[in-house]
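Task: sequence design from structure.
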């Protein structure tokens, strides 16, 4: 079964008196435990598409199911609940909460969207911090750790609720070369360990080089799909 199935997705914005077609009739499918990259120039619709898949925005037309749920039919409250249980997010500017410690940042999604008790939450957070190599930084605040460490915390936060899907919008854009590769390797290992699907919106050739499936967007249209998995075309 496909984890993500899109059919004829359209998104139109009104910019003053001009109608802008950000996405034009996109159809695609993504399987569980995949490492997928959407690539294309700025303005091609990558971030808009991620926002639709992540239930952060509504389409102008088409259908989209994520984990067997028709996400376009969800209201605001149901969409937020579905997002909290099924989707993690990693952003290029990390989006950590500055007044919360590393531990508290990772715990935050569990407080918002889970019924776990305090001990279960602590165990889950400690396990994720260990996986991303941040156990010794747990009591520090975001401004006390490096950019690469902040992105590791962001990955732990994205995975702490055991989502089926993680959406990563330019996650290596603010990282140096070596740190970017470290973060990519971390996400790949998390995919293998947790069978999580990662979907990237990126310009970064380092991520594109590691992706199993690459969708190319141009001017809101899907122009190519490349499958790099063994025994696939």
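Answer:
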């Amino acid at each position: 079964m496909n984890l993500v199935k899109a059919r004829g997705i359209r998104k139109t914005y009104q910019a003053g008196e001009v109608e802008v077609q950000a996405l034009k009739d996109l159809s695609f499918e993504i399987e569980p435990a995949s490492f997928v990259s959407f690539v294309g120039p700025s303005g091609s619709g990558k971030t808009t598409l991620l926002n639709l898949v992540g239930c952060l925005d509504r389409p102008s037309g088409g259908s989209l199911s994520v984990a067997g749920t028709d996400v376009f039919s969800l209201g605001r409250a149901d969409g937020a609940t579905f997002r909290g249980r099924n989707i993690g997010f990693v952003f290029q500017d990390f989006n950590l909460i500055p007044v919360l410690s590393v531990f508290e940042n990772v715990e935050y999604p569990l407080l918002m969207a889970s019924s776990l008790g305090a001990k279960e939450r602590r165990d889950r957070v400690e396990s994720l911090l260990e996986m991303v190599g941040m156990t010794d930084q747990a009591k520090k605040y975001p401004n006390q750790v490096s950019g690469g460490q902040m992105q590791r915390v962001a990955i732990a936060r994205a995975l702490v609720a055991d989502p089926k899907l993680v959406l990563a919008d330019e996650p290596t854009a603010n990282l140096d070369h070596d740190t970017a590769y470290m973060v990519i390797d971390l996400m790949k290992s998390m995919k293998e360990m947790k069978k999580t699907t990662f979907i990237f919106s990126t310009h970064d050739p380092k991520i594109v080089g590691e992706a199993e499936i690459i969708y190319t967007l141009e001017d809101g249209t899907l122009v190519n799909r490349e499958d790099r998995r063994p025994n696939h075309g």
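The first strand starts at residue 4 and ends at 15.
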